[in-house]
Amino acid sequence: MNQKRITRLLLFLVAGIVYTNSYCQVASPFKPRLTFSEADTKAEEILRKMTLDEKTEFIAGDDMLIRGLKRFNIPPVIMADATGGVRLAFDDSGNPKWGVTAKKSTAFPNPLSLAATWDRELAYNYARSIGEECRAGNIHILLGPGMNIYRISQCGRNFEYLGEDPFLAGRIVENYVTGLQSTGTIATLKHFLCNQTEFKRRRSNAIVDERTLHEIYMPAFEAGINAGAMAVMTAYNQLNGEWCGESSYVIKELLRKDLGFKWLVMCDWWGIYDGAKTTSAGLDLEMPWATALKDVKGKIAEGKIKESDIDRMVKSILRTCFAMGIYDDINSRTETAVDFNQHEQVALNTAREGIVLLKNSDAILPLSNEKSRKILITGKYVTKLARGGGSAYVNGYNNINLLDALRNEFGEQVNYIDKPDAEQLRKADVVLVSTGTFDEEGTDRSFSLTPDEEKEISRLVSLNKHTVVLVNAGGGIRMTGWASEAAAILYGWYPGQTGNVAMAEILSGKTNPSGKLPISIEKQFEDTPGHTYLPEGKNVTDQTPEHEHPVYDIHYNEGVFVGYRWNESQKTDPLFPFGYGLSYSRFSYSKLKTTPGTFSEGDSVTVSFEIKNTGKVAGTEIVQVYVSDPEASVPRPEKELKGFSRVFLKPGESKRVEIILNKRSFAFWDVNTKSWKAEPGVYRILVGRSSRGIELSSAINMK
Description:
alpha/beta, TIM Barrel, six-stranded mixed sheet, 20 helices, 28 strands, 20% strand, Fn3-like, hydrolase, Cellulose_deg_GH3, Glycosyl hydrolase
């Protein structure tokens, strides 16, 4: 690791001290090749010479392309999905579509797994790897990262996002954006705003108050924008009664004014309906083709659409592409080499750091490598790879299934039986059972596993007390029926092409687990505030065609109390709390110090403490700092995450950790002043290993 990379992350070691700046984790936001003003001048030169026909055609895409302008030597620009790798599509002849030149791309662990690493530098490298594959494949816009906050565990696209906490999501997003765009690939922040369900997603209306928008659902987008993101995609749903892509409130007020975004805004595919509303609302580009914007020229003649709005749209598209140097790169046919071996290593490291050990009774893990030990493996994802579907699907290469990974790690100890009987189960020294879900966009899935799956896991844990459950899912699942009987539980998310190697390494002890949950996993779905989101009488398997379903309201009545914030406000115990994850090491916390003890609103506060590895193996602990405001004038959560750091320690080693807090660490969104407000009074600083594992606390006072 060189000093430049260390400085970029503001995360470094000095004389045994780990230092982390709570906000602004990216030292220098991404800067495009041309400034806004320079790119605007070039865009204006083209715009002045364009005919109305050229302009009206340019503001709608062509499948996965931004259209070109042959008369001006402006080439088409290729886009590709998604956050966890480059999704490739092929024609009937086996050739890549849309002018993409890549024949393969790396399948990384899903983004929620990346969030479970709590690793800023890894987020940068993960995204940079994807950007390198984009550029080598002639792709200049990635339709990611996705960052919709995890509100309900049933959402089919949770696996594409970054969890329930806006602070954690923001820190991952800002490093993702800088990593991706460092390769010249545009990052597209999606889906703006409040797209928390896939159930008839184009027919849902999220009803959310202003404070909740700013405190929970916008900060991850804010972090991406502050890091220099060059594109934003609007969501399918309505927000407070207006389709997001047609809403001046969403685009002009929240995105442009409050968050200061000034580059390209596109809609999600077939996500707008009214051309006049769209053009006046501030959207720049309709994808994938002209539908709402099909007869713009005629509507201009009728006075329903202003040509000045079309000019604004054209200019924004051109300005963004000019600023990034995309047209020059395409025309110069710049070739980029890809180090796929390095990308596989990044994918493997993501899985190693993202797998979460949820339970380890009697230290059954790691498994000893005794040749006489009999390991029986069974379950859903033993011979096939667990992965999410839809636009986030990435095929990968060199895919390694769980069975091959286990046999490579444990050899002949491993015996795969598809449907083991009672005698086979009892004779095994250890039973590994693979379970999970297939999540995909366009549909939600039940929090519970199928009745047959639940029954089978219960049978296994009852017949062999040394049963380890391996979960591959895109979000939380119901484990209440069997978690207490399982000897151990490992949460592996969707592992990507090499993630099963990491799972085998953790089972053997070659890798010490360090992942922490970026979500809360409830005991029952009814324990969450969003459990009534489905229309009355409907379930996630409803077959009504989306376009025939009436618009339905989803009331975010919980306000800012999402995830662990809700659980603590309701005194509800989750099955596994946010920030939770076990290690084969043990860590102790001590010597908390907060300076200054009394401070003014604009001052920074340094939180420092000591952490020691009291175990017998080296390991990484993710330390977490929460802030509590017990004297607030508005309802506030019991605590909120405001800082974290990954700390590697050898057995017996100690390090002092310093985390810097600033005004935003103490503030809430004031709807009266339309700004962030930190009130004078007492705040509590809470330090621990999870949201429910607080080890140290102190009080400080804001003057």
